[in-house]
Design a protein that fits this description.
This protein has helices at residues 4-11, 61-82, 109-124, and strands spanning 29-32, 35-41, 44-45, 48-49, 90-101, 131-137, 146-154. The protein is an alpha+beta fold and 155 residues long.
Length: 155
C-alpha cells in the first residue's frame, strides 16, 4: 500500500529502517483508543547504534541532531509497523519526548531534539507539529546519545 505519507517519504528520499526488537520487557508500541504510543527509540540503523556518548563531550549539537533524526525515523518505522503499514492513519503527532545523554554543563537540549521535530514536520506537515519535552539525562541505555518517543492521534 502506498499512501500519502509513503509518497512524501519517497519524494524526500527518506527510507525508513526496519524496526528493531525491544531491548526489554515492553512493547514497541501500544494503541489505546485513538492514540498510538511509541516507546523510546534510539539512533539505531540496521541493528547498530549510530551515535553513542555524551552530547557536549564526545559529540556536539550537529551530530546529536542527526542522532535525534535517526531516532525519529525509528519512531515512524515502529508506527508504520503498529498501523499495519498505513501511516495515513496518523491524524497528527500529539507529543514528542526527547532525551539527551549530556554532560552536566550542556544546555542546548531543545536544539538537539529539533533533529526529530524537524523531521516530523517535514514528513507530516502541520500535523507533524507537536507538543514536546527535551530533557538532559545523566545516561541512556547502551550509552546512546539520544532517545525519542512519541504519541500519535490515529484513526
Amino acid at each position: 500500500m502506498t499512501g500519502r505519507i509513503d509518497k512524501i517519504l519517497q519524494e524526500k528520499g527518506i527510507e525508513l529502517p526496519e524496526p528493531g526488537d525491544p531491548l526489554g520487557t515492553y512493547l514497541p508500541a501500544v494503541i489505546a483508543s485513538n492514540f498510538l504510543l511509541v516507546s523510546g527509540q534510539g539512533p539505531r540503523h540496521h541493528g547498530k547504534v549510530m551515535f553513542r556518548g555524551k552530547v557536549g563531550a564526545s559529540l556536539f549539537v550537529p551530530e546529536a541532531q542527526m542522532a535525534a533524526r535517526q531516532c525519529a525515523l525509528n519512531v515512524i518505522a515502529v508506527a508504520r509497523q503498529a498501523l499495519e503499514g498505513d501511516l495515513d492513519r496518523i491524524l497528527r503527532i500529539v507529543k514528542l519526548g526527547g532525551f539527551v545523554n549530556a554532560t552536566n554543563d550542556f544546555n542546548e537540549h531543545p536544539k538537539v531534539v529539533n533533529g526529530a521535530s524537524d523531521l516530523m514536520a517535514d514528513v507530516f506537515g502541520d500535523e507533524g507539529r507537536h507538543a514536546r519535552i527535551a530533557i538532559g539525562c545523566n545516561s541512556l541505555p547502551g550509552d546512546i546519545s539520544v532517545e525519542v518517543d512519541a504519541i500519535f492521534e490515529i484513526t
